[in-house]
Structure formats: structure tokens, C-alpha cells
């Protein structure tokens, strides 16, 4: 028989004369285990080959501030997060954990440009042309657009 404590997160079970702690991960607990904003900032910075000093210089701040951001020691204002995302060629959504993939600003700009095409048929045709271009670039094939 399990006795549930702490709103269902942890229970105790009596097994063979011993009490055994039972731990259950809830969605909230799993979310806390995901990457933090600071971890994502560091990941993007390292991926770009940028040092904390270089990012600090670009943001007109100190290396210690970047370190504090990356280690989640201080909260980041949204205006600063926007600047960081721009310098790291990424999005606020990715850094904040609202977007799973690391999508560059250029890719998002392309999506916004395609979205501006009023006709669904023309938009689909433009998307197909981009796909063909990607195939050509990735495979080195020569084809007519």
C-alpha cells in the first residue's frame, strides 16, 4: 500500500518490513529538468565559437554579467534577451524554451517573407522552389529551376 505525500509527487511503500521511497516525475518536474535560458544562451554562444567576453562586448556589458546569465544567477530583461538572441543569430523563443529547435533568424525571416504571399498556390510554389534549391545545394546537382 502506498501513502502519497506532497501532492502525489513522492510516496512511501512498505515492502518486506522496509519503507521504500517512491518518486514519480510529474510534467512540472520534468519541465524543470529541461534546459534553462542560461544553458541555451551558452549552447548558442559556444556553437557560434564566441567567448563570454565577445558576447559581453557586443552587448556593451561585462563578462561577469554574461556568466551570471548563463548560470541563471540573475533574471534577464526581455529587451536584453532580444539583444542576446540577435547576437547569437537565434530567437527569443528558442532561448526561452518555447521553441524546440535552434532556428536562425534568417530562417524565420524567410518564413515571414513566404507568409506574406497572399495566394496559397503561389506560396506553395515558392516553397517548392526553395526545396528544389536546398536539394541542389545539398547534393550538388545541376537542375533547372
TrEMBL record:
Gene3D superfamilies assigned: lambda repressor-like DNA-binding domains (1.10.260.40)
InterPro entries named in the record: Cro/C1-type_HTH, Lambda_DNA-bd_dom_sf
Record Pfam families: HTH_3
Sections of the chain in a coiled coil: none
Origin superkingdom: Bacteria
Keywords of the record: DNA-binding, Membrane, Transmembrane, Transmembrane helix
Positions of the HTH cro/C1-type domain: 41-95
The keyword Cytoplasm belongs to this UniProt entry's keyword annotation: no
Membrane-spanning parts: 6-25
GO molecular function: DNA binding
Name this protein carries in UniProt: XRE family transcriptional regulator
Species: Agathobacter rectalis
